Amino acid sequence: MPLALGQLTIKRIIIHEVPRHLRSDTKSSPTYSEIESPLDAELKMFFRGKIIETVGSSAAYDVIFDAATTSPVPQFVRELLSGKQANFVEVSKKIAKHLHDAQGGASPGGLVTVVDCSLGAKRAVGILKLEKEEGVQLRETTQGGLRTFDVNYIRDLILTRKTKLFKVGFFYPPDGDEGDGEPGGTVCDEQRGYMPRTEVAGFFLTGFLGCCLAEDPRISTKRFFLAAQEFFNQQIKDPVERTQALTHLLSELTNQKAKLNLKQFARDHLPTQKVQPFLNHLEQEGFRSLTIVKNLELIESQTRKMALEFQNGVTVVGDREAFGESVKVDRTRDGSARVEITGQLKQVKGK
Amino acid sequence: MSELSDARVQWISEELRYDNLQRRIVAILKEKLRSEGIVPLVVSGRAKGLPNLLKKMLRKGYTYNMITDKAGCRVVVRFRHEVKPVLTLVEGSFNIISKEDKSEALGHNKVGYSGVHYDVALKNPESEMGDIQGLQCEIQVHTLCQSLWAEMDHELSYKPAQPVPEDIRRLIYLLNAQLEIADRSFDAISVEIEKLPGANALKLLQSLERHFYRFTGETFDNELSLQVLENVLSSYAPGERNRIPVIVEEFVETNATTLQFIFNQYQNLANRPLLLFQPESFVLFERLEKDPHTLEEVWTKHYPREELELLGTAWGRPLD
Asked: Mean pLDDT across the stretch B267-292?
């Protein structure tokens, strides 16, 4: 089950502009706000909604700070969450500067938004990267002699959808007493939903936020593989539907997509009345993120073949692809399975 | 000292224990009624006031120990068919010392008060409060009409200094007969109404209103509520449908803090989800939490998906 975000409150927000630039361009720098952005209740609720829609979605995944990272963001986040000695404006500027310095010319410019929020009684921090349309100009203003962005400009930019591609990192204190252990984190990068597997460890997650996935993808992939099969065998009685579910599972695990959205899998491939029970089963099996980054290393051989095992002792085993072409599963009136295999008989032998 | 003086002293030392007893019994009754999905009109209790206790001793010639209603509780239901489940619940929840069904003494040719009275004590596992262990409490169970009769009979028959004339007493009993006819008629009507299309939605809305006014003082569109509830009830499994008020009540109690938080956040916003400040939002939130997939399927047959998306975001569980 994704993070419960019902009690999310936006306390303050600050927006900095990070321009597109080449790494060799030493003159480029972010345009900083020097005070918190003066947002009204409506815009705060907009940001609340955006964080919930991304961080709470099935496309989000749990992350932890990478112990080996050179990104300063984890330390900034710890400071903001602790609430001690953290100057919100200054820390947010450092976060924007890190993004600016670290990203190359291929990355579009955008707005780095640091959000100080609370989740119930706990403090939380959101770091959003919003990419605005080309040509949309920033309009600066001053308040008390300090630079910020015009609130009407922000409203126009945000509410008229001149921004796109929210990348969100959301961090919160560990369960239990605040301050014990490392913060939890959830990341959603809408841009990377269907990218080839080579791009999974995207710049936003690793280079910028200094995070890595909370669970080794090899483990999460295997856990999902086993949990899904357990559900199919326990909860789907119809032999045709059960076989189809396994076929889809193997197909989705072995295709070229880097990630698998488990909720989408259920919607696309399971009988409709089984979707919620399947998601409940995954929750019981400890899946909080509903997106996994695929890695078949631990189940490689099991995804190449399919087996149909019958109560009468008969087992049909075959190559997954050959199964799809040559084996037809049907149901009889009494609910039993009837399997039809078509092919040239190679040999018969006792076993 | 006289018996009354002794009783006065004893009652002063015991009143708090009896008050604790009636509070505990009321709490047990409320909790068990709620878990059984029974929605009574009133569940109340009281420890007897000292003057009433002494007057009763004087009037009836009772000793202190003969007064069995030092603590008393009352369950009032709307309809006669609701009485039996309450009786079953009482009998399963307490040690029954005595039971008196007042209607049994009336026979077919008399009218009068016809509630059911129990003398009960807490069951052992319930007696975690040692000082109320073994104490006796009276529980009365009756319908609203029976309750009205009891109140009015007491009010009209015992107030005058002199006995009420026979003719007036006859009139009171004739009224009682009419009340019994009304009681039976209301019951028959309610059974018929429950068979009508939309009755389940109406019943559910009545139970939701109570929660709604607890969290927000806003008015709502009654017709929209009934329509939405009628349409989304099918998102519950058939076996759950007669327990929806209980399911929603448990959900509201568990999530009261979050609900209050959300209503407060959106209270003064002009741009807010259309269905948030409607009582059916509790049902929709509960479904978003427990079975969003089925809710979405049912919802999109009748309404734009966007409205459910907005509620999902408000609740913190986006529909994706």
From this structure: 93
Where in chain B are the domains? 3-144, 199-315
**B320/A57 CB distance under 8 A:** yes
Tokens of A337: 């399975």
Chain B residues whose CB is inside 8 A of the A48 CB are 265
Q: What is the pLDDT of residues B230-257, one digit of tens each?
A: 999 999 998 888 789 889 999 999 999 9
**Contacts (Cβ under 8 Å, ≥6 apart) of A130:** A110, A111, A113, A158, A163, A164, A165, A166
Chain A interface with B: residues with Cβ < 8 Å: 2, 4-9, 41-42, 45, 48-49, 52-53, 56-59, 120, 263, 266-267, 272-273, 275-276, 279
Check residue A282 and give its pLDDT: 94
Q: Which of A7, A41, A52 sits opposite B268 (nearest CB)?
A: A41
pLDDT category, A23, cuts 50, 70, 90? confident
The model's pLDDT over A74-86, given as tens digits with 9 standing for 90+, comes to 999 999 998 776 7
Question: Beta partners for A126?
Answer: A115, A170
Adjacency order of strands within the sheet including A163-172: A8-18, A110-119, A122-132, A163-172, A184-189, A61-65, A211-213
- Among A14, A6, A66, A54, which residue's Cα sits nearest to residue A210? A66
Residue-level length of chain A: 351
CATH of B3-144, one of 1.10.240.10, 3.30.460.10, 3.40.50.720, 1.10.510.10: 3.30.460.10
| Residue at a domain's end among A173, A196, A213 | A213
Reduce the DSSP state of residue B171 to 3 states and report it.
Answer: helix
Q: Strand B71-77 relative to strand B137-143: parallel, antiparallel, unpaired? A: parallel
ipTM of the complex: 0.81
Structure token pair of residue A136 = 């949309």
Query: Would the CB atoms of A276 and B293 count as touching at under 8 Å?
Result: yes
Q: Does B14 touch chain A (CB under 8 A)?
A: no
* Domain interval for residue A227: 217-341
B305 contact A CB<8A: no
Q: Is the pLDDT of residue B100 over 90?
A: yes
pLDDT at A279 over 50: yes
Q: Is the CB of residue B306 less than 8 Å away from at least one CB of chain A?
A: no
Q: Establish if B219 touches chain A: CB-CB under 8 angstroms.
A: no
pLDDT at A36 over 80: yes
